[in-house]
Q: What sequence folds into this?
């Protein structure tokens, strides 16, 4: 348990993870929400290239930015590469 972060949290899963197969953030969103965090669970194509995955992730980041001027991205594995692409290439 802890204090809620000031900015929304976007969870960015890694390769081979989605709600339909292996989910990389099992029960994490629920635990964060229980502490009062605003959580957006991103879903991107699990087996595509970073450029395509990042384009999908950007939509979830934009959704979070509609609520706040900044966003926290918590990324696992390939989700980190996707996040870096969103930040450095897609703004």
A:
């Amino acid at each position: 348990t802890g204090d809620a972060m000031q900015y929304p949290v976007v969870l960015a899963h890694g390769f081979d993870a989605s709600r339909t197969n292996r989910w990389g953030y099992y029960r994490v969103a629920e635990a964060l929400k229980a502490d009062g965090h605003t959580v957006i669970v991103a879903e991107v194509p699990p087996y595509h290239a970073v450029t395509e995955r990042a384009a999908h992730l950007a939509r979830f980041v934009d959704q979070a930015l509609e609520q706040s001027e900044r966003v926290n991205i918590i990324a696992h594995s390939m989700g980190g590469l996707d996040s870096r692409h969103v930040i450095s290439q897609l703004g």
